[in-house]
Amino acid sequence: MTIVLIATLLYLTATGLLVRAVVRDDAVTSPAWLWPALPAMLLHGGYHVLVAMRTTGGPDMHFFAALSLVGLGMAWLTSLVAARGRMAALGVLVFPMAAAVLWAYHAYGHEPSRPLGWQLATHAWLALLAYATLSVAALLAIMLWLQERALRRRDFRPWLRALPPLADLESLLFRVIAVGFALLTLTLLTGVLFVDDLLAQKLVHKTVLSVLSWIVFGTLLIGRRRYGWRGAKAVHWTLTAMALLLLAFFGSQFVIELVFGHTTR
């Protein structure tokens, strides 16, 4: 409880510093938000390690545990991106989200998991990294859409000045998508190689939706390279692919674990 509370306060402190920096238009030159964000993420990860040490079986990968780990991955990716350029405003969305899913994980409780071999563990961690990376891409797509909309309306607000130029934001979006697509590809490959019942009743929806998301992301990258897709088209394809991916894992897992009370393991 203490770890979760301290991590939450640090996440919110980092968010407050980022909001102040955006309002003052110095989000680029003021890295003060990193000081509370870094220990918040370390405590967030440490809480999962502590739970793993006290819970029998393998790492907890149930619904809220996976959600919390994706939130942690998003926070780390956001910090890496924001510390190197004008994307600190992304943390205004991601840090409170990470705090919220950490609290949800703590409040829901922890369930024992069966031990995983290195093959399934590799598949699971690749999946979490892919979800985290592509979730950041989805947030970037939304910010790209908001930026284009504001520029068309000549609505120049402080948060808009905190973002990089439109072309740079779009370039960053596709770099993140490319990394996430590679991770998703590895996730699907390890699933084929290491998961014996990939098309079992509890996994068939997850498998089909994940493949559909992979196809949409792949088509978007090809369209960008060959036809120069950008702007609203890139945003729509990104959000469609991400919606499929969210349904693939968290949608199906929510129904199976929380509605029907079963486990995906």
UniProtKB/TrEMBL annotation:
Signal peptide from the UniProt entry: none
Keyword Ligase found: no
InterPro entries: Cyt_c_assembly, YpjD/HemX
Transmembrane stretches, start-end: 61-81, 88-105, 125-146, 172-195, 207-223, 235-256
Assigned keywords, A-Z: Membrane, Transmembrane, Transmembrane helix
Span of domain Cytochrome c assembly protein: 41-257
Name the record gives this protein: Cytochrome c biogenesis protein CcsA
